[in-house]
Amino acid sequence: MIVKYKKRILLMAIMLLTVLLISMMITSCQKDEEKTDVSQSGLFKTEATIPVSYMIEGVPVIKQGGELSAACETYACTMLLQSLGIDMNEYEFVNSYLNVQPIYGYSEDDWYGPDLDSAYAGDVEWGYGINSPGMAKCMNNMLGDKGSEMTATSLKGVELDELCKDYIINDIPVMVWATTNMEEPYIKRYWTINYVDEEVSDAQIGDTEQWMQNEHCMVLIGYDESNYYFADSVAGEVSVFDKETSRDKYEKLGLQAIVVK
What we know:
Elements: H1 2-41, E1 54-55, H2 72-83, H3 90-96, E2 100-101, E3 104-107, E4 110-114, E5 120-121, H4 132-145, E6 152-156, H5 160-166, E7 174-179, E8 186-195, E9 208-213, E10 215-223, E11 227-232, E12 237-242, H6 243-252, E13 256-260
Parallel strand pairs: 2-5, 4-8
Antiparallel strand pairs: 1-10, 3-4, 6-13, 7-10, 7-13, 8-9, 10-11, 11-12
């Protein structure tokens, strides 16, 4: 009797252990399936959701004209920096910080002037402009004198949608180079380069520079499903342009921008 009883207890113990092991295996498989399902469902995605539309408030729009009629980059700089709390105006920037270099010609095909990545070409009332690398350096000179810890950074090759994702939705306005009223740009003037700032440019003395008619600098401040919004000194108001046209003109002006942060 005792032997039979012990055998029965041993058999029950084996059965109980078997049930326990099977239960543990089933639970483990279920957890693996749950992990797979979570990963496949996209719940582990780290990229933040981008709003369908967004607008930065508080960026002033200053109408350009008068003796600064050709200084759209300066106006864009002023609108951006004032929105960030920097006490300055367009005249202070032009008179004390904008690197202006002359452009001159001996004939229609014999002109000389600066590399546009290095300096503003010509007079700010009628001249040709400046590209983002040289403009960012001028802005940083002002920011340093104002005691600001912010830095102006020249960007090249960054698409408008990327600027919106990286900066606009974080309330950081962006200076961008496109065209006046998003008109078609075309090469208006060639000249031989006689000035280069080696800190911001790889150009060489004697290289050929070209300037695009209708070049314009504005401040990107928002977007929606179909349009981008710009603080526009030529219009003297916020201008709205469709995305396809804006991307095209921005690309034709070299995908260049400036952020300050």
